[in-house]
Amino acid sequence: MSWLSGLRDLFRTIDGPLQVEQKRGAAIEDLKARVGRLESGEQVPVADAKAAASAAASAVAAQHIGELARRLGVMEEQLRSRRSPGHRRRLTED
User: Fold this and answer.
1) d(Cα 54, Cα 66) in Å, to the nearest integer?
2) Does the pLDDT value for residue 88 go beyond 60?
3) pLDDT tens digits, residue range 27-60?
4) Do 23 and 17 contact (CB within 8 A), yes or no?
5) How far is CA 3 from CA 9, 12, 14, 73, in A?
6) Every domain of the chain and the residues it spans
7) Contact 81, 87 (CB under 8 A)
8) What's the CA gap between 47 and 32, in Å, rounded?
9) Model pTM score
10) 33, CA 20 to 30 Å: which among 17, 41, 76, 90?
11) What b/e readout covers 56-75, taking b as 16+ CB neighbours within 10 angstroms?
């Protein structure tokens, strides 16, 4: 009978850490699942943020391009007015 109680004690000694490891394994799996849900949930806001940043950058670029086009138009008009025949006469008269 003493060998049976020794075997039972050995089982308890082994079973305790095994249960702890099983609980740790379950907790780790739960954490992995939670991280997976968080990552998949964050993909949508991250994609939305990237799209918003891209749209803002495009709007800023379009605004600057529009301003550049306007300025180039003004410069072209000034150049055309300087090339007009009346302008050449004034330059030669001075």
Assistant:
1) 18
2) no
3) 888 888 887 777 776 666 777 778 888 888 888 7
4) no
5) 10, 14, 16, 102
6) 2-93
7) yes
8) 22
9) 0.38
10) 17
11) eeeeeeeeeeeeeeeeeeee
